[in-house]
């Protein structure tokens, strides 16, 4: 048996009673990302952190450790860590072996939310009827509550429990890059007047200043569009997934309670506790045919 504390936290534990050579106790299956997926997402995530830190550090050297940029850099990193580190709202899979769609008899149910009828779909992988607004993330291989999207840059689902940190991350990062861009432009202007050279002369003499300026300009566009889009979604209480699918095209959005109440609900309502016990004992998943030959590292 393995303790899950060392495993990638994103792996979800599911309990299935079964008999194996490891005993007749209740065991857990893991539904992990493939190693390559974990690595590529991890690399992207490290890239985001590195670019944020290096830009802010390079920028700090220009303005001699300006207090406000350090505070904003810290806010960006804290929110980035929160988005990636907390459970986004994973719905544990059903533990009942018989709960297949054939046993249940229908692949959909209907519920009424604030007077609007919504269809609940059955997830064959998780063996559950998904609650309204949830979706099965193909990358994480879990059903997630209030699914917004899976962010490949951060390597995490953005959903019920981490959406507010994601939005705060976007806004603080946007402020940081606007700040960097503004001071970089000022610095370029100062150097041009000091040395009397043009823009191409600055590019030759101070390539790092030009690189930082162009990088922060691109980041402002990228983060600005995302921050505006997600602020709009927050105001109308929709997820990006619902918006892209035009979910409420033919009917009113039952979750829309007006801008102020929507913002309060999305950003300030108490977070529900995680449904997943990440400290439970776990068995890694491998092919059933390989049960007789489990991975060598299992005995560690
Ligand atoms: Zn599912
Ligand atoms: Zn995901």
UniProtKB/TrEMBL annotation:
Recorded topology in the membrane: Multi-pass membrane protein
Every Palmitoyltransferase DHHC domain range: 119-246
Keywords for this protein: Acyltransferase, Membrane, Transferase, Transmembrane, Transmembrane helix
Catalytic reaction(s) noted: L-cysteinyl-[protein] + hexadecanoyl-CoA = S-hexadecanoyl-L-cysteinyl-[protein] + CoA
Pfam families: DHHC
Membrane spanning residue stretches: 165-185, 212-233
The EC number(s) this enzyme carries: 2.3.1.225
InterPro entries, sorted: Palmitoyltrfase_DHHC (IPR001594), PFA4/ZDH16/20/ERF2-like (IPR039859)
Enzyme type, top EC level: transferase
Subcellular location: Endomembrane system
Description of its domains: The DHHC domain is required for palmitoyltransferase activity.
Similarity section: Belongs to the DHHC palmitoyltransferase family.
Protein known as: S-acyltransferase
